[in-house]
C-alpha cells in the first residue's frame, strides 16, 4: 500500500469516528449522517485491505457500500426515534370491557382473554378467543400488562 492510500484510509477512519455524533438542525442525534460516515469509513478500510492489488479502488467501492448501508440503517433508527418522540409514553389503557364467552369450538380449546394493544398513540381492544393447544399438555399462560405492548399471553 502506498503512503497516500494509508493516509487516506486513516483520515477517513478518524473522520468517521469523530463525526459519527452528528446532530440534526433541531439538536436531535442524526443517525443517518453518523451511520453513513461510520459505514463509509469502515467500508473504505475493509475495501482497501481486501483488495491488495488495488487498495484505492477497494477503498472507494467499500466506502460507497458502507456509506449506503450505514446511512440506510441510521435512517431507520431516526424514524424509530421520531416515532417514540411523537407518541411519547402511552397512558394506561382503559378498563377491559366485559366479554361474552361462547361455546368452545371443540374439546381441549382454551379461552384467551382479550387485551388492550397499542396502535400508534391509541389503545385498541383485541377481543378474547378460543385457542387450540399447539401440542398435548400445553398450558396457556395469560399475559401481563406492559406499557408499550399491552397484554398478551403464550403457550408453555
Attribute tags:
156 residues, 45% helix, 8 strands, alpha+beta
Structure description:
The protein is of the alpha+beta class and 156 residues long. Helix content is 45%, strand content 15%. It has 3 helices and 8 strands. The chain has helices spanning 3-19, 31-50, 55-87, and strands spanning 110-112, 115-119, 122-126, 129-131, 140-141, 145-146, 150-151, 154-155. A hairpin with a 2-residue loop joins β2 (115-119) and β3 (122-126). α1 runs antiparallel to α2 and α2 packs antiparallel against α3 (55-87).
Report the major sheet.
Answer: 2 strands, antiparallel
H-E order: HHHEEEEEEEE
Mean pLDDT: 76
Strands, count: 8
Shape, please?
elongated
Strand order of the largest sheet: 1-4
Strand % is 15-25%
Unreliable spans: none
Structural class estimated from helices and strands = alpha+beta
Total helical elements: 3
Question: Percent helix among the residues?
Answer: 40-55%
Radius of gyration: 26 Å
Give the N-terminus to C-terminus distance in angstroms: 59 Å
Amino acid at each position: 500500500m502506498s503512503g497516500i492510500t494509508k493516509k487516506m484510509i486513516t483520515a477517513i477512519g478518524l473522520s468517521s469516528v469523530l463525526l459519527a455524533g452528528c446532530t440534526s438542525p433541531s439538536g436531535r442525534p442524526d443517525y443517518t449522517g453518523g451511520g453513513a460516515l461510520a459505514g463509509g469509513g469502515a467500508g473504505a478500510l475493509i475495501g482497501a485491505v481486501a483488495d491488495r492489488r488495488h487498495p484505492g479502488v477497494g477503498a472507494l467501492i467499500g466506502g460507497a457500500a458502507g456509506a449506503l448501508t450505514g446511512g440506510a440503517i441510521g435512517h431507520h433508527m431516526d424514524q424509530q426515534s421520531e416515532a417514540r418522540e411523537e407518541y411519547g409514553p402511552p397512558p394506561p389503557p382503559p378498563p377491559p370491557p366485559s366479554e361474552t364467552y361462547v361455546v368452545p369450538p371443540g374439546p381441549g380449546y382454551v379461552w384467551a382473554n382479550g387485551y388492550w394493544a397499542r396502535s400508534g398513540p391509541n389503545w385498541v381492544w383485541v377481543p378474547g378467543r378460543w385457542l387450540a393447544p399447539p401440542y398435548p399438555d400445553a398450558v396457556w399462560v395469560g399475559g401481563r400488562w406492559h406499557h408499550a405492548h399491552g397484554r398478551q399471553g403464550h403457550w408453555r
